[in-house]
Amino acid sequence: MTIKELSVFYRLSEGISISQLAKELGVTQSALSLSLKSLETKLGVKLFDRIAKRLVLNDRGKEFKNQTYEHYLSLKDAQNLFVEDRVSGELNIALSKTLGEFVAPQTIYNFLVKYPLAKIKSDIKNSKTIIEMVKNGKIDIGFIESDCEEKSIIKEKIGSDSLEIVCSDKSLEKNSYYIDELFKKRWILREKGSGTREIFLDTIGALSKEIDIFMEFKEFEEAKTLLCANPETITCISRYVVKKELEKGELYRVRLKNLEIKRDFFMIYHKNRYRSKLFREFEAQFKNI
Fold first, then answer.
1. Is the dihedral of CA 69, 71, 73, 75 positive or negative?
2. First-residue to last-residue Cα distance in the chain
3. Are 9 and 47 in contact (CB under 8 A)?
C-alpha cells in the first residue's frame, strides 16, 4: 500500500464524498476510486459500504483506521525529515467560543503566514464537547476555557482571562456589590457545557442555586444586543468579548465585593496523539498567548 492510497482512505473516512475530494485535490473521481479499490484489494477486505451512492466507513474500515492512523502520521512526518524547516500537513482543531472568536484568530493567522504549507481546519464548540472530541480522537488539538481532568488527555495552560459582570444599567457602575445583591436582575448566561458558565457558577458556589437564569444564549452578539437594549439584564462574560462595548460606554462593568472570577485557557490533546513537526510548531505558537 502507498502513502497516496492511505491519504485517500483517511480523507474519505472523514465523510467527504469522492466528488468533493476530487475537486479539492484537482484529480478525477475515477482516479480516487481506483486508489481506494487498490488499497482494499491489497488488504483483501472492503473498508467502506456503498449505501445510496455514498461511501460509509464500515467496521473493518474503522478498525483499520484506528490501528494505522498514528503510524501514517509518523510516516508523513518522516518524509520531511531531510527538508530543512519544512512544516506541512493539516491539523484539525476545535476552539471554545471565546478563544475561537476573540483570542486565537491572530495567532492562527501568524502561524499560517510563517508556514504556508500548513493547513488548519478549525471548528468552534463548547468546552465540554471539545474534551469529548479530543478523547475520542476526532480532532488533533482542542482549546478550552475550563479545566479538564481526563486521564487520557494532556493539558497545557496557554493563557488566562477574567470574567466580568456587565450590563447596560449605568447606575450600577458607581458602586460595588456582593454577587447576591445582583440576583434581582434578569440574568442571561451561556448554554450548559460552556466554560464561561461553568466557571461563573463554580466560583459563586452554593449561591448558584439562588440565581434565577432568565435566558440562555449561544452567540455572543445575541447576548450583547439583549444587554444593550434591556438595562434590567445582566451577565458574566469574558473581558475579551465586551472590550469594545466597555470602551464605547455601551456596556458597563459591575464591580464585585470580595469576589474575582478568573480562569485559565488550556490547549489539550490525547496522550497517544503523535506529535508531528507540524503539531509541535503549532503547539509552540500558542504558548503564553
1. negative
2. 42
3. yes
Q: Identify the CATH class of 1-79.
A: mainly alpha
Amino acid at 265: F
Q: Which residues of the chain have pLDDT under 70?
A: 52, 79-85, 288
**Residue 27 to residue 23: CA distance in whole angstroms:** 7
- 3-state DSSP of 200-241: HHHHHHHHHHCCCEEEEECCHHHHHHHHHHCCCEEEEEECCC
- Collapsed DSSP state (helix, strand, coil) of residue 4: helix
pLDDT of residue 248: 95
* Residue 269, φ and ψ in degrees, nearest 5: -155, 160
pLDDT the model gives residue 80: 61
Q: Name residue 254's beta-bridge partners.
A: 165
Topology of domain 161-263, CATH: D-Maltodextrin-Binding Protein; domain 2 (3.40.190)
pLDDT tens digits for range 44-77: 889 888 876 778 888 888 888 888 888 877 777 7
Give me the pLDDT at residue 82, please: 58
Percent of the chain topping pLDDT 90: 58
CA 78 from chain centre, in angstroms, equals 27
Claim: this prediction has a pTM higher than 0.70: no
**In the chain, what are the domain boundaries?**
1-79, 161-263
Query: Nearest to residue 80, comparing CAs of 122, 32, 115?
Result: 115
CB 127 within 8 A of CB 266: no
pLDDT score, position 288: 67
161-263 matches 1-79 in CATH topology: no
